[in-house]
Design goal:
single chain; mainly alpha; Tetracycline Repressor, domain 2; 74% helix; elongated; HTH_TetR; AcrR family transcriptional regulator; transcription cis-regulatory region binding
């Protein structure tokens, strides 16, 4: 692993625990026990360092999530695996990290983009599950759009404000909701 990758890992861990807006480059160098010039291996400015860490967090999380989904043989269970894995990846993120993410527009944009990709992925998982006969027949576009709205509400903090749930807990509840709504056991209960 390169020194840059090591620093990026350490930055991600620090930012998840304590947020990132209150740190200066000197503070980060002190916390990571390195020089400023070493820290600039990650990126050329504090703003770019923050964005590299935020992108790195979401990229690595996506890789781990997709690895879990790939190991699930049941196409009907992949949605729950996906959303539960999202919850697990978000669980180390402190309230401060989430607040900083929302407060810093370039980082918020990364979160919005990742939420959009996640919603599209859920829609694709619904289509695959329905196509395999593992989920009841539903309008996958609608399910995807509905999930996207809930995910956007989680990302913006609206779900947390309305429910008191952190993002990870909200994703676990979303997994329960979606799976209960798409279960083949629900076919007889359709209105």
């Amino acid at each position: 692993m390169s020194r840059r990758d090591e620093l990026l890992d350490e930055l991600i861990e620090l930012f998840l625990a304590e947020g990132f807006l209150d740190f200066g480059v000197g503070d980060l160098a002190t916390r990571l026990r390195c020089s400023r010039s070493t820290l600039y291996l990650v990126a050329g400015s504090k703003e770019q360092i923050v964005l590299a860490a935020v992108r790195g967090f979401f990229r690595r999380a996506a890789e781990r999530i997709e690895a879990q989904v790939a190991r699930e043989p049941d196409p009907g269970a992949r949605i729950a695996v996906y959303l539960t894995a999202v919850a697990a990846e978000l669980s180390p993120a402190s309230p401060r990290f989430h607040a900083d993410l929302v407060a810093y527009p370039p980082a918020a944009e990364i979160y919005v983009d990742n939420t959009r990709l996640a919603a599209r992925r859920v829609q694709n998982l619904v289509v695959a599950g329905v196509g395999a006969g593992a989920l009841r027949q539903v309008d996958a576009t609608f399910v995807g759009a509905a999930v996207a709205q809930v995910m956007a509400g989680i990302e913006s903090g609206a779900i947390g404000a309305a429910t008191g749930l952190d993002d990870a807990a909200a994703y676990r509840r979303l997994a329960d909701l979606v799976m209960n709504g798409l279960s083949l056991a629900q076919v007889g209960a359709q209105v």
